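Q: Start with the shorter request: fold the first protein.
A: Done. Sequence, then structure:
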Amino acid sequence: MPQKTFNNLSPERQREIVNVALEEFSLNDYESASLSAIINRLGLAKGSFYRYFESKEELYCYLQSFCRDLFTPLSVQMLHAPEKEFSVLWQDLFMTFKTKEEEYPMIIRFWLKMAKDRPLSFEAKTETLRRKLDLLGDSLSDRGETDSRGEKPDEDVSMVVLYHLMALIEYICLKYRIPPDKPIFSVTEDQLKTEVRRFADLLLNGIRRRPE
């Protein structure tokens, strides 16, 4: 966790530090990411930085927690809106991701990359996935969603939705040739909505054979 001196900084300065760190860890793996580069870009003396975070590892762990604290409640809130169709919620979620990138440009890239930088043990990876699936499954069940058989969504449904979300983010990067040093959602709102609608339709209706 950050030192008390970091929490005493203005929100603007905290955001600046977070954004510089997110970019460094997004463009490099954990071992290659340079704490010196972060400190230099922030115009700090090394001693001053260590008043905020004791080590590179502590900074990295803070960024992980920052992402979880930002996106987990957001996703739960979105998926628990019973008055909206799932396809509409899906679009709302991605538009919110785009909005968050305006404040933290590299946060989605870091969010996708952080698990690859420091591989978890099989047990830790399994537990992390289990928490995500349980959270998503509870959200879908609370909304009254059903699978193609009209039954309550199970783990398979949660897995499909989770990986569909990740796949769509990566697909947008590839289709629109977004450079790795740019925010993932560097597309127009209309372009993003079009891709989300297409993927939502595929998710909800599946792949069918064309009528002969």
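Q: Next, the second protein, separately.
A: Sequence, then structure:
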Amino acid sequence: MTWLHPASWIAVAAVAVPIVIHLLAHRRAERVAFPTLRFIHATRLAAVHRRVLEDLPLLAVRVLIVVSAVAAFAGPLLMTAGRRAAWNGRLVRAIVAAPGTAGTSANGEFAFRTQRIDAGETGDGIRRAVAWLASAPPARRELVVAGPLTLGSITAADVALVPADVGLRFERTSTLPASRTIKGAAVLTPTAVVARTVTLAGRETSVRDEAGSPPTEAPIEIAAPRDLEHTADAALAAVLAARIPVPPSDRRARLALVAGDDRIAANAAPIRVPWMADAVAAIAREADLAAEAARVPSGLGSDRLANPPWIPVARAADGRPIAVAAAAGDRLLVAAKARAGDFLVPVLARAVAASLSPDSDHRDAEVLAIADEQLRSWTRTPGAPPAPRPETVERDDRRWIWVAVLLLFGVETWMRRSRRDADAVVEEERARVA
């Protein structure tokens, strides 16, 4: 037997209630008919406290009522062979369909319950399907992924999210074209904004650049004291030479270089704009920046730079921040300790400029499919149904215990009435004898 709500057994302490009632109940003194009281001496009244339980059968019935009610609230579930066979005999299926997938063969297969999940990203659809399967009634569970199954649409990390007892299979619903040509993100050069066209043909990828208009404004502004101006100019030139993607016009950043710890922008504010938060996270993940910062012996000495609104994005060898970020109006503000000719400056400037552009995702244009061998290695049959959960079981066995509770209430009522009737008969007999 399994209890769906085992914590309810704490309420079994309520069995003390009928016991206390039996101990504290005051029973009226019996009236005894007597012909004369002439020869009985008067005495003072004295309270007699009763500490012995009386009518133990009635008390036992009342205790059993409380225990049975608590057991019913605990949700008993008998794991019989028939119930297990019924669960093993049915199947719940979740179908993750890629965009444009009209129908799959899994839709025509019989299942106890079927749920189709249309997902723009297959990995997100798998996570949603796993959550739905977890809330389904006890049964064998299966997840079907339908779509073109392009390279990169499903990863080993996505498959690892599927519990081991959930069956997994894949169905290709369309064929991929031999090649595709898409428009890539424009890049920034020292002389012009270059438009890019990306062609995917089999396992080959080709990029064609077309020079366009000259850049109107650099996405990043570098402010530095006089002794660091040459370092700032070299860093900006390095950023433009790196051919970074052109960010949207509303995303701009300012890099403030300081030689010491006493001069830093005073208009810093907490970051509340989503794109700024994403940019700070991207800068902090930059491996080249972290490696270069670790070569610097000491970071910024001001303690206030380690507290809000400043967010550290790189740390020196002594563990102190060497570069911090905050908001300054509609711009992202990054302040860093620098020295003339320091290689950290161009690395940081490149990381800041690259963080302003959203990641380009061309997985929808992929023309290669995941290999059949890989899909077969991920495929598995449904396992046994998982352990039942309170929110997934359609019916438990508490109704039989509630029936027993009602019967016990009837027995308790009959016992009380029988006792009153017996007392009435005894009193009447005594009166008649007197």
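Q: Describe the second briefly.
A: The mean pLDDT is 82. The chain has eleven helices and 14 strands.
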